Amino acid sequence: MAFNDRNSFRGRDSNRGGFGGAPREMHTATCSDCGAETQVPFKPDPDRPVYCRDCLPKHRKPRENRY
User: Where are the annotated segments for Disordered (predicted)?
Assistant: First the structure.
């Protein structure tokens, strides 16, 4: 089957839920900055901080231009 545009190709498996085919298992965690409850796609390690979507950008290193 030929696909003439990206959208038809991408939409083909849109119900698979990501790279592995199964939906991601989400885990509840508490943000280390603001204390809000958040959901993360990994099992939180008690020895490492976890940040919510609002606080995470404050802790990420800026990306360098790759080109």
Answer: 1-24
